[in-house]
Design brief:
Order of helices and strands: HHHHHEHEEEEEEH
Shape: globular
Strand order of the largest sheet: 1-2-3-4-7-6-5
Radius of gyration: 23 Å
Number of strands: 7
Largest sheet: 7 strands, antiparallel
Number of domains: 3
Strand content: 15-25%
Oligomer: single chain
Structural class: alpha+beta
CATH topology of the largest domain: Phosphorylase Kinase, domain 1
Distance between the termini: 49 Å
CATH architecture of the largest domain: 2-Layer Sandwich
Helix content: 40-55%
Number of helices: 7
Length: 252
């Protein structure tokens, strides 16, 4: 189905933001592969959109949660001056209230963040497969890819080449997830492209979580203060092997 340059230019912003339906998106993608002028316009708009989103403030701990914890701590301090039985009783009640509050807040936070972040991770993978924007630095050498991120991110992503284990390093690029600049490492296993999106977080190491979206498998884990989101159409068992390799210390 043909689509004119005028139509493409009218829809390019929605395409860059991932707002078009699948059929229209495929039409634009086919046009962009054949039209260098429209492809250049798309690259410009896509980078501008990412820059705008990444310039926003990162999520912070809700002030209401800080206040609840502070109030609970003050309540514990006051009750310590009361009688032993009353003090113990009130302490446990206060601790229970804090724990319940933290759990409730964490559940709400996960409900707000998991869905949108998961969708953005999958969208990032799909975008990378379109209009030849898989990598910004193409290299199978980890000592080339890792230094490329210096000065472009405020953290240093670990980069490893696992070609001997069947996961070849293709390169890396910058991307934007949840209004935050992130590192995207690209690997390939046979004909399957794998995106590994990495960004810093402030929480303890976690196990591996698995999700499915469209026809893609998404694995998420957290290690040494970094979040890892791995997405591909590769099956989950093989993708889990890459997660294990990513956990190994990398040479610098």
């Amino acid at each position: 189905m043909n689509i004119s340059c005028d139509e493409v230019q009218a829809l390019i912003d929605g395409f860059a933001d991932g707002e078009l339906d699948l059929i229209r998106g495929v039409e634009l993608d086919l046009h962009l592969k054949d039209c260098t002028a429209c492809a250049a316009l798309y690259e410009s708009r896509a980078r501008m959109s990412s820059a705008i989103r990444c310039g926003l403030l990162r999520p912070v701990t809700p002030e209401s949660l800080r206040q609840r914890v502070s109030t609970a701590v003050q309540a514990i301090d006051i009750e310590e001056r009361a009688g032993e039985a009353s003090r113990l009783q009130m302490r446990w009640l206060a601790i229970a209230a804090v724990v319940v509050g933290l759990v409730f807040s964490s559940v709400l936070w996960l409900r707000r963040m998991t869905g949108p972040v998961l969708a953005e991770v999958v969208d990032s993978h799909i975008r990378s497969l379109m209009v030849n924007h898989l990598v910004d630095v193409a290299s199978s050498d980890q000592h080339t890819v890792r230094p490329w991120f210096v000065g472009r991110l405020d953290f240093s992503p670990p980069v490893g080449d696992f070609a001997a284990e069947g996961f070849s390093l293709v390169g890396g690029r910058l991307d934007c997830i949840n209004h935050q600049a992130v590192a995207a490492l690209v690997y390939q296993r046979n004909q399957h492209v794998i995106n590994v999106l990495i960004w810093p977080v402030n929480r303890r190491d976690t196990g591996v979580q698995k999700a499915f979206r469209q026809r893609y498998v998404i694995l998420q884990t957290n290690r040494s203060g970094l979040d890892y989101w791995i997405v591909s159409d590769l099956n989950a068992d093989e993708l889990a092997k890459l997660v294990t390799l990513l956990a190994l210390p990398q040479s610098k």
